[in-house]
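Supplementary notes for students who missed Thursday's class. We covered one full example, reproduced here. Read the sequence, then the structure, then the short commentary at the end.
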Amino acid sequence: MIDLLFDVPWWIPTLLAVVGLALLVSGNRRQDDRTRNGGFSLIAIAIGWSIMSYLVDTPKETCQKQTRQFVQSVIDRQWSTFDGLLDPSATFEMPGTDLKLEGRETIDQAIKPDVQYVGVKSAHITDMKAADAVGNIRITMTVWSTQEKTMDQPLDSDWEFDWRKSDGRWLLYDIRCLRISNVTADEARNSLPVHNSR
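Structure (token representation):
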């Protein structure tokens, strides 16, 4: 219900506005105040609903925006933003391997050197979807990235981010790297010196 109220599909207010306009024109032609006022009301509802949907972010929209900020913080090496979006008890996993990092500090110690080693240069998110997951928000996405180690050849990878609300803020508490291009999970892990040393 919240999604429909604050993240309304564009066609719903558009349809309301079209119906309202038709009623307005019809009411004017027939000099029917009731029909004309009904048309005005529908147009006003459509405009108000669109403005409210634009100005107010749903939890899903908030988590999608913060996911983009999180990915960009890696590209820009803005580690204060990176840490600010991570829950202190966050985890990082790569299913198919025994890799599991627990806690923000542990993730920092592993991810920062790996990002530097690989030389991540850019990332573009595609196919982002948000879904409710037992009171939390799960973001699934594909990320196309370029890095020095692959001589700027783009690699695609699939990810799941789980966000949960803590002290009034949505924080990232579970990161899962599901796939990296056409390499196996073990090959991906073993290509990173910090992870491989664990």
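Commentary. The CA atoms of residues 99 and 198 lie 8 Å apart. The chain is about 50% helix and 30% strand. If anything here is unclear, bring it to office hours.
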